[in-house]
Amino acid sequence: MTSFRRELHLVGTMADLARIGAFIEEACAQAHIDPAARFDLMMAVDEACSNIFEHAYNGLAGEVTLRFETRGRDVVITVRDHGRAFDPDGVPPPDMALPLEERPIGGLGLHLMRQLMDDISFTFSPEHGNILVMAKHGVAPVDPPTPTTGRRRSPARPKP
Amino acid sequence: MEISTVDMKRCTLFRLSGRIDGSVAPELGSQLRAVTDAGKYKIVVNMRDVTYASSACLRELIGAWKTCRRWNRGDLRLAEINPNVDKVLDLTGLKNQFMIFPTEAEAVGSF
């Protein structure tokens, strides 16, 4: 069941990352997301969009659609773009055992996304482009605000 | 993001503030390179007022760190990192790679 949903659609560049961060922070506040999880959500989305603008659109302006929603106590964030197809298997995770001098610099963004979120999946189709779905479990309130008014609902809940 | 630099006797001090994401991290990189290109390889970066540091910020710090440490000619050390930056450094395995000091004075004094 989807209880809360916000969308942001933009044609943007790296310069829009702060605006995207503000969108996530605002959605977290409206949905009363656990404050301890808000930074993780904001950062995961920032890293995802940064990769899109840098790699999928190669630094040029491109279309991105973000959806922030709660499903039960989970937050699910979907990020769509129509840039170059992204293959996560082509980005090896950073080898933490290596001394920093020998470590390649890339791959940190994807690594952080995986660390900050519980589930993460990438799909690509020529028709729909890249679709990234990230979820974080147990961070939305049991009784979320309604999507339109932001007020908390107070349904009569059966006692267990 | 705002950057101020102070040339000190022992090192160059960078004080960073604000949000350092992929749109502004290249500017941080170019200011760090300007210092190392001038032959100064002892750098302290005070991150007390950094509200957000993305992987793009880390890449610039790592790049400068590598340049400074080449041939044991210097180092890039961090000071006054806040909990959010601390978390990002931890998740990326960088916390034990950078020398990190609780105060700017201690970081500057370490050179």
List its salient traits.
heterodimer, A: Heat Shock Protein 90, five-stranded antiparallel β-sheet, 28% helix, globular, B: 111 residues, alpha/beta, five-stranded mixed β-sheet
Ends distance of chain B = 26 Å
Helix content of chain A: 25-40%
Query: What's the CATH H-level superfamily name of chain A?
Result: Histidine kinase-like ATPase, C-terminal domain
Give, in spatial order, the strands making up the sheet with the most strands of chain B.
1-2-3-4-5
- Roughly how many Å apart are the termini of chain A? 20 Å
Structural class of chain A: alpha+beta
Note the main sheet of chain B: 5 strands, mixed
Q: Which structural category fits the helices and strands of chain B?
A: alpha/beta
Count the DSSP helices of chain A.
3
Radius of gyration of chain A equals: 17 Å
Shape of chain A: globular
Topology-level CATH name of chain A: Heat Shock Protein 90
Q: Helicity range of the residues of chain B?
A: 25-40%
CATH architecture of chain A: 2-Layer Sandwich
CATH superfamily of chain B: STAS domain
CATH fold node name of chain B:
Transcription Regulator spoIIAA
The CATH class assignment of chain A is Alpha Beta
Enumerate the strands of the largest sheet of chain A in spatial order, edge to edge or round the barrel.
Answer: 1-2-3-5-4
Domains counted in the coordinates of chain B: how many? 1
For the record, the CATH class of chain B is Alpha Beta
Could you characterize the architecture of this molecule?
The complex is a heterodimer of chains A (about 160) and B (about 110). Chain A is an alpha+beta fold. Chain A has one domain: Heat Shock Protein 90. Chain A has three helices and five strands. Chain A has a five-stranded antiparallel β-sheet, covered by helices on one side. By secondary structure, chain B is of the alpha/beta class. Chain B has one domain: Transcription Regulator spoIIAA, CATH 3.30.750.24. Helices cover about 40% and strands about 30% of the residues of chain B. In chain B, β3, α2 and β4 form a beta-alpha-beta unit. Chain B is globular, with a radius of gyration of 12 Å. Chain B starts with a strand and ends with a helix. The chains are: A alpha+beta (about 160), B alpha/beta (about 110). At the A-B interface, α1, α2 and α3 of A face α2 and α3 of B.
